[in-house]
Amino acid sequence: MWFSNPLKSYEFNIQAKASIDQKQGKAISYGCRVREWGTALLQFLVPVLVDVARSETYHRPMFGIWQKKLKMIKWVDVEGVEYAVVMQNENGPCPLLAVINVLLLRGHFSLLCNFRQITLPCGSTEVSEKKLLQFVADCILRLKPKDIDEAELPNYEQNLSDVLALIPSLPKGLDVNIHFTGCGAMIYSRNSRNLIFSRVKRFEYTPACALFDILNIPLMHGWIIDKADQELLRLIDGLSYNRIVEKIVSTNNESENYLLRNFLDSSASQLTTQGIAELLSNLNDGEIAVLFRNNHFQTLAKQKDALYVLVTDMGFLGESAVVWETLDCIDGNSTFVNSVFSTSYKSSILANESAEHINETSTSAEDHYVQHERVRVLPSSTQAIRPSKNYNSFTGIPSVRCLLRDWGNFKRAPSVLSRHFQAANYFNIVCLYQYPNQFSEVRGKMAVKFVSFTTFVDPLFWDELGMRKLNDWKLDEQPHSITATYCNQDPGTSNTRLSISFDAFLVKSEWNKNVVPVNGLVLAVNTHETFKNLDRKQILCNAAQKVKKCIESLDWLEKPSLLNTFYLTVYPDLKKYTFRYWNCIPALLYPQSVRMLSDPTQLSAELTSLIRVFIALHHNEPFLLVGKTPTPLSSILLSTFVWSNDVYVVYADPSTLAAFPGWPLRNLLAAIAYVRYVDLIQKDLKNAKFVCYRSGSVPSVIIHLAWEASGIIRTDAVGWERVKGSLSPAFIDLRGSLDPLKLMDLSAELNLRLIRWRLVPSINLQRFSNLKCLILGAGTLGCNVARSLLGWGVKNFTFVDNARISYSNVVRQSLFSFDDAANGGKLKAVTAAEGLRKINPLINAEGVCLKIPMPGHSVSKQEEKEVEGIVQRLEDLVKRHDVTFLLLDSREARWLPTLITTYQCKLAISVALGFDCFVVIRHGVSDDETNEEQSQSDLNTILGSQLGCYFCSDVTAPGNSSVSRPGISLAASGAAVELLAAVVQHPKMGSSPARLGENDESATVLGATPHQIRSFLSRFTQMTPAVKRFERCVACGAAVQTAYRSEGFQFLLKVFNSPLYLELVSGLDQLQATAIEMDLREFDDNESVSSI
Fold this sequence. Notes:
This protein is 33% helix and 18% strand. It is an alpha+beta fold. The chain folds into 3 domains: 67-337, no CATH class; 454-734, Ubiquitin-like modifier-activating enzyme ATG7 N-terminal domain (Cytidine Deaminase, domain 2); 746-926 and 939-1069, Rossmann fold (3-Layer(aba) Sandwich). The strands form 11 sheets. It has an 8-stranded mixed β-sheet, with helices on both faces. Helix 8 (241-250) crosses helix 9 (254-266), helix 23 (780-791) crosses helix 28 (966-985) and helix 29 crosses helix 30 (1049-1057). It is globular and about 115 Å long. Belongs to the ATG7 family. Belongs to the MINDY deubiquitinase family. FAM63 subfamily. This is Ubiquitin-like modifier-activating enzyme ATG7. Residues 448-736 form the Ubiquitin-like modifier-activating enzyme Atg7 N-terminal domain.
């Protein structure tokens, strides 16, 4: 039962009578009468009783301690609004003040843009410690999520229980242990703000961390090692502060010992320059947090790209101009500022005092060595209830917090003490200085804790998943089978890992030694919204149902690996190559009341050797060990099988904590308990011995468990993985670990794949990637066309132009910059190709400086050979490419490319601009249908081979205007590229027909394939006419093509030197003479008179 306020929901009438035995230093008696007794009250009172038992001033009533401890209040004015700051009147870590001040300063504080969660009576000058603790408790309970899933409720309530138990210790200190991280293999992003765990937020998880999580207060530190110090990073990467001290004590390596000692001594202030930089990058402007430094907790804020800590020393109570202190250096040379972060004054004396205070509170490595000699560690079964990765129960952790010095006064209330230990510190060892053996009274009543898996995902798996999502699954949101593994040889400093590697999608018949496969499912969703809204309660229920069915059907007896499964949910953002994932590893909450009957005992060397052989024979599957004989699990169904004291269940245990079993035991225990209970003949099993076999450095142990079984097994289960101690998905950014070129290619390709998945399933994207484009003219149109083609995945470009870039080009031609026009200007074609490669380095782009010969531009004898080489080069370019864009600035310059593309049956697209209009024309491409007669039923369609070229429409087509409206080029180039896209998707590609009337939108998957697109910006209208090839066209007409075929370059020379020669060859001169003669005959006066 949860109460609205555990500090207000009860009426206390507590009388504490104590006398002091000066020799023993322990309390003799306590009397306590409580009107209403419940779980929350127990969890609240036990730490108080413990603290009183440890206190040296027992003559004071317990709650009198709170009543007499008052905190002073300082009121600061921020733009006319007063805010309270609680001051510190005695030395100590006092996380209570840091938390309270964060809650007070959140809100309408214009410089710190959060929401204020508590307030103090305006004008009050002091507040009791008890009242502050009530505020914290109120805030914790008020922040309980309203829409929390039932499956997550037990985890949340456990966290809430742990946090409430910590409240009385807030004035004195919290168990916080910094976890050092370098550039380890588990962190893939180069950007510190995108790390899986930001280095300034890395702590070993304890209930204290849960306190800050529930209150939504960032907890940070600035003890960060510079990434340049690779040797030190390698040495302490992944270690906590406690582990570093332990390593100094235990290591025999003098060089490592020196490095570690030097590190602790040189950074005694627990703040580094690198730490300040990363604090700045991890805090948003206006954000407020708690800074942990030298076992002190300070209120930290970022404002205007600077860090400040709140000044709470009593000496500044009357100094209204001193509210914050800068945090911009590590030598204590700070500046005091007022409530709006303006400099008030700087005091070197105060700065020095602050530095001395830090040095007094810092602890050197030598101090820790002395402390370790005084520590007595309990048996492993009495140690941490909820373990962490950097904790080996057999060796213990040097950093110890004693909760009791006197057992005698509490042995009458073991149930109360048991609850307290369940809310105890996650990582530090719970130890007793006296009566360690009497703790066995409590041990039998403590629930067994299982070490949960931490999902470790190989980065190559994400690459494989991304490829399958792109190529195979597409928009499909169905789960797919994968296989993960765990092993029983991970070191004690590692997490208990469930590994998902790059070959997780493959089906294997054999696995490596000491590797246990786990079959599961992966669900890759399409959007982040879908990922957030997944019914995770139902997913867990379905996974648990699968395990339950396996147990009830007895399938697990033949294949025990069926008891373990997982369900990995992923949102792969393949544009950014980031992945959000959350893994569910279900464990049934059956049987009930599982407890440990005795301390774990280490496996003997003889038995270890036998099991090593037996477990290899059973392929890492569980089995029974009767005496020294391996027996199949199916034996437990036999009526003759007696579960004697020498029967052990052996399984490969992945736990890296010696005294705690791993996650696979949960479902194995459920299966054994259920099968023996429902057996009508043998309903005898209520306890069993399990061998947690580990083949690595963590010792194997035997644990003796008891439970209360029933014949009904339900789907109640837990299993959603915790990240940093909270139920939330993990995030990984692989952009920093991937080749940027590959990432660029994948991201660009994904845009096109999304078109195919969501809009046009039958689109052929391969045609775009294979397309080779020749762009004649690298000006405004050429740059824009190339940029648009990039969007369709075109990767092969050749620019042809002979001009240089001028300053007037830069503003209109998108592939050029200011520097390209300097010093006479760079060559357009070459620079355009370079600019395109800067956008996408994976494309093939070439620039060719070439001046295209034109009709009427005479060629001298000396120039003939050079011009012939140019013509030959242009012919080769057209032949090597699939489509040619005619984006030249004059009609004459388009003639030769039109002639060549028609002759070589290549697709050509001309774009011409006027001031406020444009035309896009695709030239006809001859094919096998050239000589076919058009059927009568298709009179409204012109075959692709019969479509006219630019010169067939020469009378109506605009020539390139030297001046045009700025938006015309973008519209025209876009229309040209989209026309090409539609034509490429047609079965006949360049030979696709065009309709005379209304376009057929179903011609291709991208719509119609018109012959021409004419746009008039002054009227904002567009039309798509179709023109049949003109038989006497000067470029694509049959006579001209025949002459070019037969005479080659000599024909071109005649055209270059005499433009009238084209009219002669094409027959236009005869047509013109006929037209004139017809005009004369029609308007002859004599003929008119005679006709009257």
